[in-house]
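SEVERITY: medium
COMPONENT: batch folding queue
REPORTER: lab tech (J.R.)

DESCRIPTION
The queue accepted two submissions in a row. Attaching both inputs and their returned structure tokens so the on-call engineer can compare them side by side.

ATTACHMENT 1
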Amino acid sequence: MDKDKEPGILKKADEFLQIFKKGEEFTRNLLKENEDLRFRIAELEEAHAQGSNAAKIRNYEDHIKMLEDERESLKERFRKVETENRDFAQKYVLVAEENNNLANMYVASYQLHSTLDYEEVLKIVLEIIINLIGAKKFSVMLIDKKLEKLESIASEGIGMDNTAKIPVDKGVIGEVVREGKSYFSDESIHTESEDPAKPIVCISLKIKEHVIGVIAIYSFLNHKTGFSNVDYELFNLLAGHAATAIFSSRLYIRSEREFTTIQNFLELLKGKPTQ
């Protein structure tokens, strides 16, 4: 082999090796860049996935908040409906109670004017005072103009002798007779008065503006806790209707007696024996 040609071959071999090394380095760089790209792609995919999950989570949170708001709205509406139902129930009870009270007052008023029998009228007055008003001890008194005193005509829980012949100018009763206005004590309804002239409640019995007597109440039944509107209505009913019923029945008795006396006198004039 020629010695002059050997260096040229070596040079070409060296150049080839350099080219091969550059190719190898280029390949490594390419592989590294490719690997970096794969990592970058993986990072981007992960970030995208995380972003998608975050969006889903936000959507879920928004939906949950919407459901919670709707639930609170429904709960608020339910509370309002429940409150309205309670109000309606209370109003229904009040209306039913009022209707019952009106019915009792109607029955009481009807009974007072359903008879002219004096004893029957007094019995009805006593029943109203006991059963509808709840009085325990009381007395019904009429004015004796000649004696200027109040005379007991009916009572409950108290002897008629204890309230008989009370002067019309004495105590609370005298004030009620003079003023014509009913009296209600400031003391507790569960107290009991022992003074015949100073009852807890005193109702004037009036025909128009003319006082003919009083209903004096000295104590109430234990279940009575206070005065309701219907109680005051009953007091007003007794003040007018009871007075009229009592007065009318007394006039009827007197007229019956006078009629019987006149009839007997006429029979006597005719010479006919009376029966």
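ATTACHMENT 2
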Amino acid sequence: MHKVAIAGAAMCRFGRYPEKSVQDLGWPVVKAAVENAGIAPKQIQSAYVGSAYGGRLVGQRVLRPLGMLGMPVVNCENACSSGGTAFREAWHAIAQGQWDCALVLGIDKLTALGGGVLPGQPDDWDVNVGLTMPALYAMRAGRYMHEHKISAEQLAKVAVKAHKHGALNPLAQYQNEITLEDVAKARAVADPFTLLHCCPTGDGAAALVLVSEDKAREIGLAKPVWVVASELNSGRYMTGFRDMTTPEITTRGAEEIWEMSGMGPDDIDVAEVHDAFTIAELLYYEAFGFCQRGDAVALLESGATSLGGRIPVNPGGGLLCRGHPVGATGAAQLVELTWQLRGEAGKRQVDGAKVALAHCTGGGIAGLDHGACSINILSR
């Protein structure tokens, strides 16, 4: 296996852009990532594009204005893990020696859906009885709060932290700090969630350029960020009772990424996890072993996962504040962590960050914890 480095990274500010097409969102971000890598567009040998709602041939549509076609373009749909899946496929191709230079793009335009919760598959029986993602996570939150005697105010602290970080990120959809009172008084969504417990939908794109070690040396890459390990799995079908407070797919993926990388939770300096709802961040603290089961709120309240703490989580504001244009999120997490490891994250910089973890789960299917989960470890 060849070593793989991230040579270029770029993203746009996430938000609502009803006047822009998918290609209008994407091509400037691709151009910026290629320029950031210090290479010519013709050096890109293949492109991997993650999108859940972008429609057919989204990669070709985005790359057409740049004249970057003729090469293989692989369009990846894996729900919220689409961008992370595209990254994993590009990494794997370079690691196996197929390419020396590949483009990764994550992109989605959710304003085209008209608002509201994201639509599920109409033939899924959970969807047919009205189980939306906010309702599913609300049930997880309710069970976790019952089992571990967690208050609504303690759960809301996840949102307060996310906005504190997001206020430092000029590319976040929301750049405002909030209070516990703001969270409590926001519009009710699904008990115990108010609107500020839930990530916003929106539009966005994020891109990275991956290169082999030889290519990194050839182009004189000054600040290589190395892909230590990349893991992708799917949820297991389980009938009957399952513990909603244990994210099966992430727990299993964490075990696999630790084995693949030879690392453990104590080696991680900064992490981006899939906090689509406040409870999710707490569950993922435990899944990755950042704390023991039931101790997630204690870890949060200690300040360990805030900027300046032992292991800052979601320094870019996470999905709760940066926004969640589904297919773009996995790539955006990796862009954020690339900037963190390069020391280019500005006011939200994690001092001395050397090793980073990105985690993105995707989709709700009846009988599965989630449909897909991508996990990546990066280092400088």
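NOTES FROM REPORTER
The longest helix spans residues 22-37.
No errors were logged for either attachment.
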